[in-house]
Amino acid sequence: MSRPWNATHAESHLPKALQGLRIPAVASPLFIISVPALVIAQCKAGVIGSFPALNAREGEGEHPLLDTWLTQIKEELDRHNQANPDTPAAPYAVNQIVHRSNGRLERDIEICVKHEVPVWITSLGARVEVNDAAHSCGGITLHDIINNKFAKKAIEKGADGLIAVAAGAGGHAGPQSPFALVQEIRNWFDGPLLLSGSIATGDAVLAARAMGADLGYIGSPFIATEEANAVQGYKEAIVGGSAADIVTSSLFTGVSGNYLRPSIEAAGMDPDNLPSADSTSMNFGEGSAKPKAWKEIWGAGQGIGAVDAVQPAGKLVDRIASEYHAAVARLAGEAG
Ligand SMILES: Cc1cc2nc3c(=O)[nH]c(=O)nc-3n(C[C@H](O)[C@H](O)[C@H](O)COP(=O)(O)O)c2cc1C
After folding, report:
1. Disulfide-capable partner of 306 in 76, 153, 200, 273 (CB 3.0 to 4.6 Å)?
2. Pocket of ligand 1 (CB under 6 A)
3. pLDDT class for 275, splitting at 50, 70, 90?
């Protein structure tokens, strides 16, 4: 796998963990769906792979599954790197939900420090202690935000970089246009900036960079991969769906998010007449009913029209990478 992306100049301001990727992209963490097999495939394919720490749920009294997963991911990527020194795997990232209902946060942070996790993705709360913990083991933190105010707060609290979650993203999407969000953040922030929301092609990754972001942050397309922990019907709904099938609602988690219309109908609800819920109903605790809701109500962003097959994650990255290089060449040709 060659890495023709000549990024020496473009990358020089980025922390080392974000440099040297095959294409400037991160595969984002997906609740329930991102498991070690998917993360390993993403990293081997040359993009940063990630998973939410909360996906690793052990039974009562069992050894922390997060510890086991991190050992597995590191061993597998080390083996790959020894066998493929010219095309090493991209680093992996762990997502921490920094919300008061996440009773595991402290324990999960300790495990991540022990494993020296290189990239920490934090959501739903910016906290100095989490950033300090990541820095204590040489890691960097990327905090996801939906507006400029939260972006400023995240950097004040010590995050190294930002993930701008714009309109059309899967999961807890923001309401703002990516153009507005990136431009407002770039007015004052020149550190690592990732952009998310409907990025599903290499052309869109390049567009994110043209807009001023450093990397694209891609979620929903990875649901339709062989390694994803999702039922076949969900994967097929991603393949068959398009932007018109995405419904925005706060009902399922207490925060506005994007979901596949057919899954809401299958759960016996009318997607066009959903009641709203407020953020006090968010719960990421062990006893939460929400994982069940997430299993039955399928999250997805508006970019899924670009997904036309369930395939191995490596093949999806190959497709996005070749589109990216073609788009770079096309625009370079126009400029020249
Ligand atoms: C089903 C699903 C689950 C998600 N779970 C998480 C999560 O646990 N933590 C998180 O930070 N983001 C989560 N996200 C958001 C994604 O990481 C990312 O921001 C988003 O998918 C990007 O938009 P896209 O899906 O249009 O590519 C989730 C998104 C989806 C679709």
Report:
1. 200
2. 28-31, 33, 52, 95, 121, 123, 144, 165, 168-171, 196-199, 217-220, 299-301, 303
3. confident
